[in-house]
Amino acid sequence: MPSYPYFYEGFFFEEKNTMLKKETNFRTIIEPFIIKSIEPIKITSKEDRKSIIERANYNLFKIQAQDVLIDLLTDSGTGAMSSEQWAAIMRGDESYAGSQSFQRFEKSVKDIFGFKHVIPTHQGRAAERILFSVMCKKDSIVPNNTHFDTTRANVEYQGAQALDLLIEEGKDPKNLFPFKGNMDVKKLQTLIEEQGAENIPLCMITITNNSGGGQPVSMENVRQVKKVLSEHNIPLYFDAARFAENAYFIKEREVGYKDKSIKSIVREMMSYGDGCTMSAKKDGLVNIGGFLCTNDDITAQKQKDLLILTEGFPSYGGLAGRDLDAIAVGLQEVLDESYLHYRISETRYLGEHLTQIGYPILLPPGGHAVYIDAKALLPQIEPLAYPGQSLSVELYKIGGIRTVEIGSVMFGKIDPKTGKETPSDMELVRLALPRRTHTQSHIDYVIEVMREIFTSKNKLGGYKIIKQPPFLRHFTADFEPIK
Ligand code: F0G
Description:
This protein is α/β, with parallel strands linked by helices. It contains 18 helices and 16 strands. The chain has helices at 12-16, 19-23, 46-55, 83-91, 100-113, 124-135, 149-157, 185-195, 219-231, 243-253, 262-271, 297-310, 321-333, 337-357, 374-377, 387-399, 408-411, 440-455, and strands at 70-71, 117-121, 141-144, 161-164, 203-206, 236-239, 275-279, 290-294, 369-373, 401-402, 404-406, 413-414, 421-422, 428-432, 463-467, 478-481.
């Protein structure tokens, strides 16, 4: 077993965190809810799946949901809502303007995030589009710890440059640094000095850092980033999709936060920001929705004007009143420590067992997902033959498990002049865990499938792309196994 601070024997929390002891006195971490409504899954055979994946041109985004047994493609909008959220859905006020649903939504968001203006959007990327349309010009530079792919695409769509300034520790899959999502403050300072603050309309921090392995950002790092930005009047925005998971890691790992509530940790972090974008499909615990916050009146007005153009009136922003009510409740529920404890433990449980089998995973396991280092696992496959894609396809074929490649398929860069492709820094496969959706036996099944794949990993081969669109190619590209 690896021995590193936040992850051992599956029962790390018993010693580190007294909460579980208080609750049950047992070592088993239970789901802190019971199941009230179920959705059957269709059991398919290996033979079925071989032909299904071939027909989908080896792109898992092209497989029908009913053909998937355990869907770990994303934790976005795939979680289960609570009975309180379903009750809130029934309270939805569908008035076009000034609905009570909006009032409850706004109150809940302000209560947790503390920003002055709250603008609902249909999901995170809509908030991003509006934010960058208002803030960026051609050739602007937007630094981030690591831009998520939609964030990067939305920055680049404005003709601006999306720059990743992740700390070096965050790029090393084996490094056990507890806050591998941190931004490199020195690099940020150099960037501002070299490029000029006038060319950096805003800086973002993604919590947790999804594309870097769901790794948290420390409060201390946010404080330092804010200090540098303040000296140059550059606003700081959070990509807050997994804000509660990030806060839980801070409570667990950062000196001085052990006895603080999750809510107060979130409030402190947001107090260093000028606004945020939010995909409520993650820590909003809903299936659809998002929002954009800002403290600046003029920016907010411009954002609302754009919102009306494409999303809708500022009191619903492309959502139904009932969606806003579900978010209002979800945001409060996600702050529950029993929930976050179970959530982070589930991910850790999966990560620990995969490590035991011998899988090189991104350590320590992140909040919402386990990331397998496919480059280290499958050294026989060149990065540009997409080892992550190969493992993803195998997981589907053998176990009906859908995952996502986060490597060169997603982030490989093609030079428009030469057509030459540069691989991504890392070749990862993400097993993202939907919130409150699977039981431990589902996770045990995943572990069993992965054990089988591990025994024949040396036989796996690479893939080539035979068709692709100009951007966000991973969603629609067609692949072929390399013979
Ligand atoms: N920011 C982060 C950090 C994300 O992880 C996502 C979505 C978005 C922004 C965009 O939000 O989907 O509501 O428009 N991530 C999903 C994922 C798609 O699978 O990681 P959205």
